[in-house]
From TrEMBL:
Transmembrane segments: none annotated. Keywords: Acyltransferase, Transferase. It comes from the Bacteria. CDD domains: NAT_SF (cd04301). Pfam families: Acetyltransf_1. SUPFAM superfamilies: Acyl-CoA N-acyltransferases (Nat). GO terms for molecular function: N-acetyltransferase activity. This is GNAT family N-acetyltransferase. Residues 3-147 form the N-acetyltransferase domain. Gene3D superfamilies: 3.40.630.30. Belongs to the acetyltransferase family.
Length: 147
């Protein structure tokens, strides 16, 4: 393996969207994906999100997508939307490399911390985040409104 990470670019969006679909399949929710390459490309151009990719010999095998949010209590925070590693490459430390790159980006851009969600049944991800001393919240309820 020849793993490298870098900041993602517009040209990476088609490969990134394939990873998004792979995650949706893993989470048994492919039917809920309404995004597409064109929408992601437009939103990336509008600076709505940024991302890191992990590559193995120039093939994208991992992604960490993030954006910034603002907390009235904490100030600027980085919200990590997803870390995705192709199924055949999981267990090789690629998620850690992407997570660490994201932590560095958060610190460099003056964030006071990071936030993300993890499914309670994804025990490998929960265990991964525990190694970082993550605070798991059992008080707040996730809410959303779809249009």
């Amino acid at each position: 393996m020849n793993i490298s990470t870098r900041q993602g670019t517009l040209e990476d969006i088609p490969a990134v969207f394939e990873l998004v679909k792979e995650l949706a399949i893993f989470e048994r929710a492919l039917d809920q994906v309404s995004n597409n390459v064109d929408k992601m490309s437009r939103d990336y151009k509008e600076n709505l999100f940024n991302f890191f990719v992990a590559e193995d010999d120039s093939k994208i095998i991992g992604l960490c997508l993030y954006y910034y949010r603002y907390s009235t209590w904490k100030g600027k925070r980085l919200y990590m939307e997803d870390i995705i590693v192709t199924e055949d490459m999981r267990g090789n430390g690629i998620g850690k490399i992407l997570f660490d790159a994201t932590v560095v980006a958060a610190k460099k851009t003056g964030c006071t911390g990071m936030m993300w969600q993890v499914l309670d049944w994804n025990t490998s991800a929960v265990g991964f985040y525990r190694k970082y001393g993550t605070n798991f919240d059992d008080e707040w309820i996730n809410c959303n409104l779809d249009f």
